[in-house]
Amino acid sequence: MTPFLKEITLLLKRPFLRIHHYFAAAGLVLITLHPIALAIQLTNPAVFLPNLSSFHLFLLYGGRQALIIIYIALIAVLLRRKAIAYWRPFHALMYLALFFGVVHANLSGTDFLQNTFITFTFNILFAVAIAAFALKRWQFHKIKARKKKA
Fold first, then answer.
1. Which residues of 85-111 are buried (b: 16+ CB within 10 A; e: fewer)?
2. Smallest Cα–Cα separation from 34: which of 1, 61, 53, 54?
3. Are 20 and 1 in contact (CB under 8 A)?
């Protein structure tokens, strides 16, 4: 979302940070409900623990790592006023969490395995998120270069 701050703010007529926080809160609730429902269904709280027995199982159950990383990033954001210089790298962990989540969905997601359209859509969305991250880094680089010249 961040490479398109101006466009999103103009389109939705709300401050970008508020929109970002609404999406983040909704995503956090939904992504947390998934393993909770699975733990209840399986009556097994181990669904929250990463599986380190093999690389394949580590990726297959990548949603577990993603959830842990998401909450680490959330804690960093909540502490951003106290750790101004450090919160951004922790918040950037969300891209790693997205990677684990998408790999997990591709390897074990029931909807992904049965519906090519959903698989295609989510993988394209992941690629767009990575491209937006790269675009934002490039925008920051250009701004720093301009400031350096001035």
1. eebeebeebbeebbbbbbbbbbbebee
2. 61
3. yes
Q: Which residues contact 102 (CB under 8 A, 6 or more apart)?
A: 122, 123, 126
DSSP assignment of 87-138 equals HHHHHTHHHHHHHHHHHHHHHH-HHHHH-HHHHHHHHHHHHHHHHHHHHHHH
Report the predicted TM-score, pTM, of the whole model to 2 decimal places. 0.81
Summarised one tens digit per residue, pLDDT across range 53-102 is: 999 999 999 999 999 999 998 888 888 888 788 778 888 889 999 999 99
Whole-number average pLDDT of the chain: 89
Residue 35's nearest CA partner among 72, 65, 64, 60 is: 64
